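Q: Convert this sequence to structure tokens.
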Amino acid sequence: MVRKIFAGILLALSSIFLAFGVIGIAAIWIYNEPLTRKAEDTLVGIDLELAQAQATLQSSEEELERALRIVDSTEKALEKLADPSGDAENVFDSIQNTARRKPRSPMRFITNAFRAA
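A:
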């Protein structure tokens, strides 16, 4: 008789715990669904931001490579100008001599133009 009572109590407790377990699983499933959607939406947003950042970094890298090519070509041009320094000095001296001369008045040019015509 004690065994039957003990078995009945055990069966009742098992049934109650099984019902609580099923109810708990359903409650967790209902509670977690919005959280799962929110987390998924957040991760999709982060993925889009990372893709945009990657595209920006790639375009920045291309722009830096272009700037580096420009700097390299400028350095090469400066090296070429530095080699024939005599020609550059002659040009600079002629510019200096032209700047030292007294500028002619515009009226003189106009008068000479009328005389030539």
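Residues 2-82 form the longest helix (81 residues).
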